[in-house]
Design goal:
Helix content: 25-40%
CATH class of the largest domain: Mainly Alpha
Strand order of the largest sheet: 1-2-3-5-4
Number of domains: 2
Strand content: 15-25%
CATH topology of the largest domain: Transferase(Phosphotransferase), domain 1
Number of helices: 10
Number of strands: 9
Structural class: alpha+beta
CATH architecture of the largest domain: Orthogonal Bundle
Largest sheet: 5 strands, antiparallel
Shape: globular
């Protein structure tokens, strides 16, 4: 559908939501843009307003970008992937729009684990892996997996939900790998979660399923340890360290064992952050190994 829309320049009208009420209050603001709360069909929603870093000469070019980055997401339905409700034109005369998604009261996994440290962290990790695997199965690279982009549901049991597809792109072999208009570009990711190959300037557009797997390993470290990888290090320093094969050390102590960090889990994390992208396991293989370790523990 996204490829058809790109070629025909026709976009499903159901993606455009006009009956969205904006609060006008910015919840947060980042590299990608700003996020507001709003109401849609009686539900509290999140309205994400992208910031574009290149000149958009026409609505046609803008919607071509939407077909590349948003429409593949709109076709995804999985309990560990943030649902896409639609696009809300802001009507501000600047051609801006908001991406409308459900609002999660629990926020992201980083803040949630600070408030509720006894949460089953392995279950959250399993959810992240399941969401990543589903994206990869559908040819989508998330591009920015990290704790701040993992939301926590209010359901019982809790679910980790992958959000923020600001760096996502369709990873197929049919010409969709290199969008010429992107909402955040290659600089939007966080250096602590980026794979070593992403720092190689000789590779033009290089986010991949393998770099997602690397980011997943760092997100696992963050969820289990409670710390961002390489805390206190400047991004440029992290780039040098990672390029040399340096990785975070294993957290030691009963607290981390209770959070699910056994030898098998640590070995999986190490495999996922291998220097060579070709040596990292696939998302499906990660799910299989997590399932095996969960069965062994139970």
């Amino acid at each position: 559908l996204s490829r058809l829309a790109r070629k025909s320049e026709l976009y499903p009208t159901r993606f455009f939501l006009h009956d969205v009420t904006r609060s006008g209050d910015t919840i947060t603001e980042g590299y990608f843009g700003e996020i507001e709360k709003g109401l849609f069909a009686g539900e509290v929603v999140c309205i994400k307003i992208p910031r574009f870093f290149c000149f958009v000469s026409s609505t046609r070019i803008l919607f071509q970008a939407l077909s590349r980055e948003i429409m593949p997401w709109a076709q995804i339905s999985h309990e560990n992937v943030l649902p896409f409700y639609g696009i809300h034109p802001l009507g501000d005369g600047r051609g801006r729009f908001g991406i409308v998604c459900p609002f999660f009261d629990n926020g992201d996994v980083v803040d949630y684990l600070v408030k509720f440290p006894n949460t089953d962290r392995r279950s959250l990790i399993n959810g992240v892996a399941a969401g990543m695997s589903h994206l990869h199965d559908n040819g989508i690279v998330h591009g920015d997996i990290k704790g701040r982009n993992i939301l926590v549901s209010s359901t019982v049991p809790l679910r980790a939900v992958l959000a923020d597809f600001g760096l996502a792109t369709v990873a197929d072999t049919n010409g969709l790998m290199s969008p010429d208009l992107t909402s955040s570009g290659d600089e939007g990711g966080t250096k602590q979660f980026e794979a070593p190959e992403l720092f190689d300037p000789s590779i033009p557009y290089r986010r991949s399923k393998a770099s997602d797997v690397y980011a997943f390993s760092m997100a696992c470290y963050e969820i289990i340890s409670g710390n961002i990888p390489f805390p206190g290090r400047h991004g440029n320093h992290v780039m040098i360290m990672v390029g040399r094969g340096v990785r975070p050390g294993r957290p030691v102590g009963k607290m981390y064992q209770d959070r699910g960090l056994d030898n098998v889990m640590w070995k999986l994390i190490e495999n996922c952050w291998e220097q060579d992208p070709g040596q990292r396991p696939s998302a499906l293989k990660i799910l299989e190994r997590l399932s095996e370790t969960s069965t062994a523990v139970s």
